[in-house]
Design goal:
The complex is a heterodimer of chains A (502) and B (362). With 502 residues, chain A is mainly α. Chain A contains 20 helices and 4 strands. The C terminus of chain B is likely disordered. The chains are: A mainly alpha (502), B mainly alpha (362).
């Protein structure tokens, strides 16, 4: 058993190393980031805090890219359109004077239908340009930019009467360059405390499982699933625990200090995993499962231990996570995974692999693609709301311009490609890309004595990684027969890299 | 009934957006006349911008004809042109050989750079057949961003290039007054109407240069290589069957396109009077693509006439619409919005056209 487990650990480690080696983009960025971190000339606390802030801000947008990749639409440069939908909603919310959570609710209510409409339109356009979705999306983003500017610079105030001297340009036509969100939407999502999150989620979880159980009972008499009492019980425990004074105090702060969060959650995760290892025999899980859970608890405990190393503890003390934002990111990850288990998700996957096969199997290809686009656009709109409420200032004409490219670059840095992307790659990518983004100007000014070089370097990295990834994708996509007359081993390393996962 | 058929046939042949754009052009011209704007000066400006952008737009012809599609990556040629011009300024060639010598050397240097860069770029595009537009867009962006790093780091000594006080690297805009600024424009230039800033100035040298380039391009397209290149672009399988090396032809087309991009930016810069560094050229490829598409090209076929007509219409609308829009809607910069909508709208339209076959796959 013991040596078995060691063997398992060794295999996992080798697998991870192999995966890292196979994905040279990730490896390259890993090296760049390490080098950058070492040469910032600032305390590591600064970088870490900055990266965690940016992670909360941007990850939702990056995760919004995964569904179109699944449906074979490639990297959706059209998420800019979703961001625009969000910005239209934010403008009106601020103008009408809604603040805090109410403001966010109004934003969501307004942005979602607009984003669905936009997504539907973009999807229809993509259906007319099959095979060229990416370039269409790219140009479309610029085209939409024109309409957006027309709306904000001319229609608002020009046609639509709007009076608000703090938001409108002095002449009465057009919206000012920046709209301050402090005092209305700033941190509206970020400041929701862990307490409200835990209570809300446990109640919601219990409600949903009861409703699903009730629906299921009505529908099919024969195939009833029993009400999972232990899960309801778990939710009740979480809910009740929030009233215990120490827990209450721990959770009531509006940000989660990482140095306090890691020990608590690390121990919790470790306990759950250990519990699973112990009960694995009873629930009929195999050896692999037990080993995996064992590893999880081991890693969690190691993380807890490491977090108490003084140097690291000091850094972690200054990181304050916005709880709700991170929870939303986690929920979107769960959603992306869950979608794959549904009929719709499977349809999307089929369409993504071959439209002809999907069509033959009776899937409405165009409709599936439009649904994928609508979902992505809506998620992008929500992502932009999260982004702006965290940023606190809304640059009317600039907030959306780079969001598509940065999100795509981040996803690609994580090892995703035009055909294949998942949550892990998105999260890893955001960490690497934004670490580089933070450290590039700093380390350039220490190494070359010029921050400007770093600024340009990170822009170059952003464009370069997209160019590289698109080129590599197209390079591999050429059917072998097409270059029969050319040298067969044109691409070094082509044979060693695994083809895209099925 | 017959008239209606012929009308719809005409619309189909020319393309609805082009008719709209042409009608719009006429509308702005009438608008300008109605508002009593100085028409001679406006048309002088249109002529200048026609020649200024012409060669850059011409760079699209070999690219589209050889099969790589609209060359969004013309920025590669542009940075070659900028580099050539910077070298000429840095070594003060104009003092030794005069303005004409300076512009000739700048062009020759840039052409040499562009041939190498273009060949490499063509080699890359041969590897990514089918996704040239997306790849070339991002290769173009990367090239600009990459050269930005070099503009900051290259050790220029010339006072024309460096910032006057402090500041790193090259300036954002570098004056060409002491090297080859407006050398083509003023060659044989004359006032056709009036004789001051309200008159219509004809930049004879610039226009002649543009037309000469068009003619050279025309001759090339009629030559054996040009014909082979067009065949490789329009029907690669057939071209291969007739013994044409398709990949080689695509590299030739891409290299010529890049060279024209380099020559084009020098023409542009001398007419403008300044070299625009850094991100100024980032979206220039899009404007060029839009211009040739407005002129009637598609993503698979382009003619010299498309360049001449398209550049004139596109620049004409931009030049004339600006003062009209300012009269009409005081205080808003509507012309820039219009530029964005027109140029990107026509590109999207062209893409939906070219992929018409793919859409009927199901």
């Amino acid at each position: 058993m013991k040596s078995n487990y060691l063997h398992y650990l060794k295999d996992r480690t080798i697998d991870a190393a192999k995966a890292l080696y196979a994905n040279k983009v990730v490896l390259m960025f890993f090296i760049l980031c390490t080098f950058g971190l070492a040469t910032t000339g600032k305390p590591p606390t600064y970088t870490v805090v900055e990266v965690f802030t940016r992670f909360g801000r941007n990850t939702f947008l990056v995760l919004a890219l995964i569904i179109p990749v699944l449906a074979g639409l490639g990297l959706n440069f059209g998420i800019v359109v979703g961001a625009m939908a969000a910005q239209v909603a934010i403008f009106w919310t601020v103008y009408w004077g809604f603040t805090g959570l109410k403001g966010i609710a109004v934003c969501l209510l307004m942005a979602t239908p607009i984003a669905i409409l936009f997504g539907w339109l973009v999807g229809r356009l993509y259906n007319r340009t099959k095979g060229a979705e990416m370039i269409t999306g790219l140009i479309l983003a610029y085209f939409a930019e024109g309409l957006y500017q027309f709306f904000f610079l001319y229609l608002i105030g020009g046609i639509i009467p709007v009076e608000n001297p703090t938001m409108i340009i002095a002449g009465g036509t057009g919206v000012k360059n920046t709209i301050d969100l402090a005092g209305n939407l700033k941190y509206a999502i970020d400041t929701i405390s862990l307490l409200s999150v835990a209570r809300g989620l446990s109640v919601a979880y219990a409600l949903v499982s009861v409703v699903l159980w009730a629906l299921n009972r009505q529908k099919s008499e024969g195939l009833q699933k029993p009400l999972q009492k232990d899960r309801l019980f778990g939710a009740a425990i979480v809910f009740a625990a929030t009233f215990v004074p120490p827990v209450h105090d721990f959770m009531a702060t509006d940000r989660l200090q990482l140095s306090r969060g890691i020990p608590v959650f690390g121990v919790l995760i470790a306990l759950v995993a250990l519990f699973r290892v112990v009960t694995a025999g009873r629930t009929g899980k195999d050896e692999q499962y037990r080993m995996r859970q064992g590893t999880v608890s081991l890693i969690a405990l190691i993380a807890v231990g490491v977090s108490f190393v003084p140097a690291i503890h000091k850094i972690l003390t200054s990181v304050h996570l916005p709880v709700m934002t991170y929870v939303l990111i986690a929920l979107l990850c769960v959603f992306n995974n869950w979608l794959l288990s549904t009929k719709l998700g499977q349809d999307m996957r089929t369409v993504g692999q071959s439209r002809t096969v999907a069509n033959a199997a009776g899937i409405n290809v165009n409709r599936t693609r439009i649904i994928a686009m609508s979902m992505s656009t809506v998620l992008a709109a929500w992502g932009q709301i999260i982004y702006l409420q965290n940023l606190g200032t809304f640059a009317t004409y600039g907030a959306h311009t780079m969001c598509g490219q940065y999100a795509i670059a981040a996803l690609l840095v994580g090892g995703a490609s035009v055909q294949q992307a998942n949550n892990k790659q998105a999260i890893l990518g955001v960490f690497l890309f934004h670490t580089l983004f933070v450290v590039a100007p700093l380390s350039a000014s220490t190494v070359f004595g010029s921050a400007l070089i770093g600024e340009y370097f990170r822009v170059f990295i952003c464009y370069g990684v997209i160019a590289l990834s698109l080129a590599m994708h197209a390079w591999k996509a050429i059917p072998k027969g097409d270059k029969k007359d050319k040298e067969p081993d044109a691409l070094p390393g082509e044979g060693t890299e695994a083809p895209a996962e099925a | 009934m017959r008239l209606k058929d012929r009308l719809s046939g005409f619309v189909k042949a020319v393309g609805l957006p082009r008719i709209i754009i042409f009608a719009f052009f006429l509308l702005v011209v009438f608008g300008a006349h109605y508002y009593g704007l100085g028409m001679p000066a406006l048309f002088g400006s249109v002529l200048r911008r026609w020649g200024m952008f012409g060669v850059l737009v011409l760079a699209m012809v070999p690219a589209i004809q050889c099969g790589i599609g609209p060359n969004f990556g013309v920025s590669l040629g542009i940075v070659c042109g900028l580099l050539g011009s910077l070298i000429v300024i840095e070594f003060k060639i104009a003092e030794m050989l005069g303005a004409w010598g300076a512009i000739t050397i700048a062009m020759l240097l840039s052409i040499v750079f562009a041939i190498f860069v273009g060949a490499g770029y063509g080699f890359l595009l041969n590897r990514v057949k089918g996704s040239e537009m997306t790849v070339s867009t991002y290769v173009g962006f990367s090239a600009i961003a990459f050269m930005n790093i070099w503009w900051v780091t290259l050790p220029f000594r010339s006072g024309e290039i460096n910032w006057p006080i402090g500041g790193e690297g090259a300036r954002n805009t570098i004056s060409l007054a002491s090297s080859f600024g407006e050398v083509l424009n003023t060659a044989g230039g004359f006032y056709a109407i009036g004789d001051d800033s309200t008159g219509m100035y004809v930049p004879t040298g610039l226009l002649l240069f543009f037309f000469a380039m068009c003619y050279v391009m025309y001759l090339f397209m009629k030559s054996k290589t040009g014909k082979a290149m067009s065949a490789a672009g329009s029907n690669p399988v057939f071209a291969r069957a007739s013994g044409i090396n398709v990949d080689r032809m695509r590299i030739v087309g891409t290299a010529i396109s890049t060279v024209l991009g380099a020559v084009g930016i020098i023409t542009y810069a001398q007419a403008f009077g300044f070299l625009q560094m850094y991100n100024a050229a980032l979206m220039m490829g899009f404007a060029c693509v839009a211009a040739i598409l407005i002129g009637g090209a598609s993503t698979v076929q382009a003619r010299i006439s498309n360049v001449v007509i398209g550049t004139f219409l596109f620049q004409g609308i931009l030049v004339i619409a600006l003062p009209v829009a300012n009269k009409l809607f005081v205080g808003t910069d509507l012309s820039d919005i219009m530029r964005i909508i027109i140029s990107n709208g026509i590109i999207i339209y062209a893409i939906t056209r070219s992929k018409g076959g793919a859409a009927s796959e199901e």
